[in-house]
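Module 6 notes. Inverse folding takes a fixed backbone as the condition and produces residue identities as the prediction. Think of it as a translation problem where the source language is geometry and the target language is the twenty amino acids. Below is one complete input and output pair. Work through it position by position during the lab.
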């Protein structure tokens, strides 16, 4: 893990204060997204975008994208990386505007964790997975997590 990813992880833990549910959620999403990205053999810079976006995808605040930019800048993340990460965060649930494998993998990882946290029924998981999952390892993680 590079220094900026570690720095952002710490800042996000501080951002959520004592809200352990939110912290656990982004840590779970980060862990799955990081693994899928590595297994899918993303280029190093794309993997960094993915990992940073995974850590920050649940950022809160009146202007969450501005807050995300401020955190990234405070962690010495370069402008191009900050722009990409903010774009992914801003469009996380815009399934018709997926702009890369980093974005797709984050969607898949977030869905896996959210399905588990919310107790989504197996039939619904299968339906959504058939519509939204495209990566081989995202599908594999989903199948393993839910025995489907």
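Target side of the pair, the amino acids:
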């Amino acid at each position: 893990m590079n220094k900026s990813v570690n720095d952002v992880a710490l800042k996000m833990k501080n951002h959520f204060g004592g809200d352990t549910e939110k912290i656990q959620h982004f840590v779970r999403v980060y862990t799955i997204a990081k693994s899928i990205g590595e297994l899918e053999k993303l280029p190093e810079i794309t993997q960094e975008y993915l990992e940073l976006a995974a850590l920050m995808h649940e950022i809160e605040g009146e202007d969450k994208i501005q807050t995300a930019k401020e955190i990234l800048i405070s962690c010495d993340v370069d402008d191009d990386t900050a722009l990409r990460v903010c774009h992914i965060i801003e469009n996380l649930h815009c399934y018709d505007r997926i702009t890369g494998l980093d974005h797709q993998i984050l969607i898949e990882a977030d869905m896996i964790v959210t399905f588990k946290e919310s107790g989504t029924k197996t039939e619904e998981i299968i339906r959504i997975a058939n519509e939204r999952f495209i990566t081989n390892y995202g599908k594999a993680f989903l199948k393993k997590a839910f025995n489907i």
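Reference fact for the lab report: The radius of gyration is 15 Å.
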